[in-house]
Amino acid sequence: MINLVPLTERDFAPFGTVAALARGRMRFGLVDELQNLRAPARPHLDFATLAMKPLPLDATLMERHATSSQSFVPIDAAAYLVLVAPASADGGPDMARARGFVAAPDQSVTYRANVWHHPGTALERDGLFAILTFRAGDDADTEFSTLPAPVRVLGP
Length: 156
Description:
Elements: E1 2-3, E2 5-6, H1 9-12, E3 16-20, E4 42-50, E5 57-64, E6 70-76, E7 80-85, E8 99-103, E9 107-111, E10 116-117, E11 121-122, E12 127-135, E13 143-154
Parallel strand pairs: 1-13, 2-8
Antiparallel strand pairs: 3-9, 4-12, 5-13, 6-9, 6-12, 7-8, 7-10, 7-11
């Protein structure tokens, strides 16, 4: 069971970067946070609607991009789920050490390369996001792991 907490830069730092989005703020860019560890991979920008799933929910699947960071930038969204886990000794997600956060609609997240995370999930209503990942178009772009048992995710 994982109890979600509000997303903060400090708490999320082991897994990636949080960027606050604000009108009137001068230009803010991600540079060092974007990782591409494969020469043939190119930036791939998707625009996707993430379906809303109410809490509590059962996490059954995690994913990672072993050689690429992945950024989620809300365009028209409310709160959304950020569920992350370090790798276990066998390389899969270590759900015993997983952390769960509620991201606000004005927070963008960038997962570091090789960080296990739950697929994008909106919590209050469907949300439109821009998603940046580096891809080469092969099986190494994304790895999925079906969890041996569902992990219950509870609200704050």
